[in-house]
Design goal:
- The chain has 2 domains: 389 residues, Growth Hormone, Chain: A, CATH 1.20.1250; 54 residues.
- The protein is built from 16 helices and no strands.
- Helix 7 packs antiparallel against helix 12 and helix 11 packs parallel to helix 13.
- The longest helix is centred in the last third of the chain and has 36 residues.
Amino acid sequence: MTPSPPPQGRRPALTLSIAAFGTLLVLVDYTSPLTTLSPTAADLGLGSSAQTWVLTGTLVGLAALLLTMGSAADDYGRKRVFGAGAVLLLISTAVSAAATGPTQFLIGRVLQGCAAAAVLAPTLGLIGHVYPVGPGRVRALGMWGASVGLGIAVGPVYAALLERAGGWRSVYWVLSVLSALLIALTAYGLQESRNDRPRKLDLLGVATLGAGASCLIAGLAEGRHGWGRTPVLLLLGLGVLLLLLFVLVEARIAEPMLDLALFRSPGFIASSGGALFTGLAIVGLMSYLPMALQKSAGETPLVASLVLAIWSGLSVVSALQARRLANRMSATTQVAASLLLCGIGEAALYGMTPDGSWTHFAPGLVLAGVGSGVLNAALARLAVSSVPADRAAMGSGANNTARYLGSALGVAITLTVAGQATDDRGPRYAMAAGTDHAVLVAAVLCAVGAGVALWARFAEARTPAAAPPPGGTAGGAGAAGTVQSPAVSRG
């Protein structure tokens, strides 16, 4: 099926701006607790388990619904799903801002994850609809990748400054106002796009994926307080079983939410695998670093967030410049090279000491920041180019689902590895030693992810190009989104 022709004039730039603003907003919301958790916990009486759920609750909503929202956006309207996510983001941030106890606040955080899924999933489909294959799309996806880094950079600093000026509740009230602005921009500036022939809603797939992802992330969150406990083992086991059931469901139905035939495409494997290892090796460690800087090195929340901004800020710059690599290397090669660079940068963080300076981290954060920006831009290109054109939002949803499932697992791995360290000199020294262990594990995971991407690149090179599937292209995109791998059957 042929997608509708893209609109002309200023519409593409406006669509890109709104999609990037929505992406930035949900990432600011996600990262804000990195520097406001302590005052929020003190005010609401959040215990250690509840504090774990402040970030994890958002991940549950994201991982459970991203793929579902991407499929729904392709079939029932990308603008409609994006706008619904903006409305839910306004409601959920207001719920957290007005919370009088832990339960209400955590419900708001889970709903913010659901809202983030509805906003994030259609973004690449919206952009792909108005930017045809070519240099313009490469440039636009690089700008979207920059918005990811910008949201991560701005979130902790924004929250630290606003909390200091007006308390932690002001962080969420301002986000509510910005969500209202996003709703208005969506209504005015976005044009609806959807498939010509919507698929049937895959209810069993929605149920098994949502429940499986929720159980798995819940088990990972609770596992930080003891991996051998019965509830943890039950949640992890049930999560794995439900996700396996999801795969069986998708393999058997006529119109699956996730077409498993996509995994025959090296580009789709590079996209999903690269996103998974981004969460495992990069997001997991960087989510932990501000806490280590505060509790071990004695930095203030604002200083810790500014140190993290070295990494996330440079990822913005490098994502914007990544388009210059499009004519020199394929997107899969960029994924492999950038993961390797991130791994080198993370290894350079080794050597934390309680009496040391934050400047020790600067060189490694610079390298990891440059690698992360190129990685975000390359993954965005692959998410769109490795699926049929009429399933672009589904490709975005699959990519982001892998990223946030990886993030949940990455945070769990980082906390577990760091928590194993001991030191007779006290907890600050133990945390420094644990951080060193965690950065080495993260560097190794980056190297493994780079290996997966390299395999995909060699698989592309060995496989002759074929005609693209109806409605779009498949495989890894090269300089301007050209086909470099075989067509993907529609199952």
